[in-house]
Amino acid sequence: MTAVHAFDVLGDPVRRRILELLADGEKTSGAVCAVIQEEFGISQPAVSQHLRVLRDGGFATVRPEGTRRLYAVNSAPLREVDEWLGRFRRYWTPHLDALATELARGRRERRQPKEKEQ
After folding, report:
1. Alpha helix positions (H), 41-75
2. Vertex 12, ends 45 and 2: CA angle to 5°?
3. For the stretch 59-70, what's the b/e string if a residue is b when 16 or more beta carbons lie within 10 angstroms of its beta carbon?
4. What distance in Å separates the CA atoms of residue 51 and residue 75, rounded to the nearest whole number?
5. 40 alpha-carbon distance from chain centroid
6. Alpha-carbon Rg of the chain, whole angstroms?
7. Lowest CB count within 10 Å: 2, 29, 57, 66, which one?
8. What is one Pfam family matched by this protein (predicted)?
9. The whole model's pTM is what?
10. What DSSP string describes 6-23?
């Protein structure tokens, strides 16, 4: 799968939310449907279609367990997306490093007055 195709699959907010749910562990299709129907107000067949797109795109796996279908994340395509994004990290990594430095400085400054009082 190319990164561009992966972004086609991941471009939909419903599918991204389904992956978030599956990232917490294997879920039945019924459990996924219940959450997605509540949050997005779409029908069970529409949720099933999103699960199918994730499965066909390689982002999710499904295994039968009796009459239930259990879905889980397949991390391989996500690694491909991560590799593709790697060439762009230089644009945000320094900003995140600077933010981490400022947060640490703020924590240190909040502690220092307490240390002076002692």
Report:
1. 44-56
2. 110
3. bbeeeeeeeebb
4. 15
5. 17
6. 21
7. 66
8. HTH_20
9. 0.72
10. HHHHHTSHHHHHHHHHHH
